[in-house]
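Hello Y.,

Per our agreement to keep a running log of every chain we model this quarter, I'm adding this entry. I've kept the format consistent with earlier entries: sequence first, then predicted structure.
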Amino acid sequence: MWRLVRRARAADSNERGAAGVTVAVMMLVLIGAGAMAVDVGQIYSERAQLQNGADAGALAVALSCKDGPCNTALADGLANTNSNDAASKAVVDITVPGQVTVTTSTINGSSSFLTNLFANALNSGPVTVGAQATAGSLPPGSGSGFPLAISDDCYNLTSASPTAVVQKLSYKPGATCTGPSGTEIPGGWGWVDESSPCNAITAVGTSGMASDPGNNPPSGCSAILTGWKDTILAGGEIEVQFPVFDTSSGSGNTGSFNIIGYATFKIWGWKFGNNHEYEFRNTASDPGMTSSLACSAGQDRCIIGQFIRYNIIGSGSGPGGTYLGTSEIRLIK
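Predicted structure for the entry above:
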């Protein structure tokens, strides 16, 4: 009997040893799986930050290319400020005309966030993570803003700069644009349908219905015009992207414009109505005005200013319209 008991105890002791080994192995597996989960999470987080840096860098460099010589150094700073460890680098490719591609990646080394991974305990080396973005410049294909469309027959960008010629665009049929060409057009601009008070959504290739056959602007524009006036009086500038049409059809509320693109107009003054905020710096006695630029008295309506070259960061999609001095810098891949 004593032998049987001793053998049973020996067998139990052996089983305890096997269970201990199994537990040790399983603990190693669980720790490894947990470490992998944490590491993968860190890698995905780092890659998201690097993608932000690549996107911002591509847009910033592309914008600099439109304003002057490409400033490729912008990409490195944006890659660092958008990464978790501020230890990232960016490589800029501007060999494709009209495009900027930025590739960001981590920097391996003692300061790198991804050198401190749990997987290093398993003799796994540092991880390098990267991201890439490409930005390009296209004319805007759509817009939302002040409900006024301008005829391209009156469009005169000249030097395409803030020093471009100041001109008057009149509403009345038969009015003469005061640009060097002196083009006679059947009305320099027209009101388009509003999507909300004093705001119209337009797109290239679609027609915007004329919302008001008369001289006066749509309702709800008082606050916007007051804001424009206050900004100019305070020494600021008002630069508005207007939709531009090449042809019009119909008349009154049944009329429509064929939108071909967008032009940026730096506004000096206007006369959209009589008195108060509806007319501002629209006479020959106002600062910078002349008799040829000033709006006529009575029912004449006009807007005075300069068409300028303008670059904006946008998120548009699809092809743009005709290039009219305004570019939209956007991510294209």
